[in-house]
Amino acid sequence: MSKNRKPNVLSIDELEKMNTKQLLAYLHKLHTCEQSFEKSDMINNPEIVDKKTIYYKQSDNWKQAYKNVKEILKTREHIH
Q1: Origin, by domain of life (predicted)?
Q2: How are the residues of the chain apportioned to helix, strand and coil, as percentages rounded to the nearest 5?
């Protein structure tokens, strides 16, 4: 898997099936997304044609994924 691979849009059910380590890795991928298309160096916005991938933190998909992951992690045992 490429280090530059962007996170996929996942349903809440898909996220809940992940173990804690996988959720933390997904959260890390979310954190590596660029802030917004306007602040990126891309010429065309890939989110217009690719609805299955999250590219920017200011997108609705990113915000929902982040919220879902944080909510699920609250229910998991803490890692010290």
Answers
A1: Bacteria
A2: 45, 5, 50
Give the pLDDT of the chain (80 residues) as one tens digit per residue.
Answer: 345 689 999 999 999 999 999 999 999 999 999 888 777 666 666 666 778 999 899 999 999 999 999 999 999 987 54
Instruction: Judge whether 59 lies within some domain.
Output: yes
Residue 67 falls inside a structural domain: yes
Number of continuous H segments (helices) and E segments (strands) in the chain = 3, 0
Q: What is the tally of structural domains in the chain? A: 1
With H, G, I as helix, E, B as strand and everything else as coil, classify residue 53. strand
Rg for the chain (alpha carbons), in Å? 13
Q: What's the pTM value of the predicted model, to 2 decimals?
A: 0.81
Domain range for 36 is 12-74
